[in-house]
Amino acid sequence: MKLAYLVNTYPQPSHSFIRREVQALERMEWQIHRFALRSNRAALVDAADLAEETRTEHILKQGLGPLLRQALPFALRRPAATWRSLRLALACGARGAGGPAGTGGRLRHLIYWLEGAYLAARCHALRLPHIHAHFGTNSATVAMLAAELGGLRFSMTVHGPEEFDAPHAHNLAEKTARAAFTVAISSFGRGQLCRWADLAHWRRIYVVHCGIEPWRFPAPAPLPQTPPKLVAIGRLTEQKGIPLLIEAMALVARQRRDLHLTLIGDGPFRSLLEAQIARAGLQQQITLTGWLDEAGVRDHLAQAHALVLPSFAEGLPMVVMEAFAAGRPVIASAINGVPELVTADTGWLVPSGDPQALATALLTFAATPPERLQAMGLAARDRVLARHDIQTEAEKLTELFASGGRA
């Protein structure tokens, strides 16, 4: 009933789904020790994230000296396992995960090996027999090396799209073969893992959704009695497609100027987006709020008629789940796992990268009668509560942890 959870950087404002998963497991009496390679303390504002920070052991925060003092004596007591884990690290590094193939990749993987040796030593000290890594990138590499060195089990949850953009560089096939089990957060994700995994390992690839806490979403607020209002939520980065959304809003404005969009989030694209909005003369139609905590996001969802997600790359977006739980339909790009959530009775799917198609969907939404929008929102809520209750999804993980992947 004891586990290690490992994430590259944790907690993060965008990783509240991991916190919910860990806390759901703890409610079922699992003892979870949180590890992260890095801290992002300066970016944390939400009280729940700040509390989670204090519960997390950050490996690189220890400094090189403490890492070596924990890792090397542990490794020296296990020469055969140390040799196997070093060979594994160098082989993975030769394939170039996290850097170019050859010397650079091997050097990086030697650093991962040191982190893994420290993690293995800590897991032995804390009597943690199993490491579960979130994301199939460097955190899963460290977990795999720790398991090899320490005689531990490891598993991983793969989210995408990053892992699927470079499956060979991230050694997905190797990790899937060695893991006790691998979790995908969508059927699309499982299909991508099956592309790279040996057929013999498909049976140990499971779908466990990210989840919401239904009790945080009481009965949906009535739709506002205002002209149509949209909200978009997420980091202002290239993969979120917000410039395309602004282009679509400019097309919509030729026919109706009463559609309003609120952009919630911050990031490197903010100044670029502000300039684009000004050039298009859309300052009255588009509002940027900056980052908001979970309560602020829920308030804005309650004040909107629908969520819009114009992304170019996603896993299975939490913002769609939260909009559905709030009783709001969604307009979204038809990519990756999104069509598993958004259906014809809960929203509109549009081709990714097509501003005209997105503008058409926005106009269709704006012309939809309020009673139809309300019915779509209620159908969306029913769908997400049935498919994404965090307690139900955590129970699936419990069965996998308890059985070692033989659910």
UniProtKB/TrEMBL annotation:
> Any keyword Secreted?
no
**A molecular function (GO) term:** glycosyltransferase activity
Tell me the InterPro entries matching this sequence: Glycosyltransferase_grp1
Q: Which domain of life is it from?
A: Bacteria
Q: Name the Enzyme Commission number(s) assigned to this protein.
A: 2.4.-.-
Q: Which residues cross the membrane?
A: none
Which EC class does it fall in?
transferase
Keywords (alphabetical) are:
Glycosyltransferase, Transferase
Presence of the UniProt keyword Cytoplasm in the record: no
Protein name (record): Glycosyltransferase
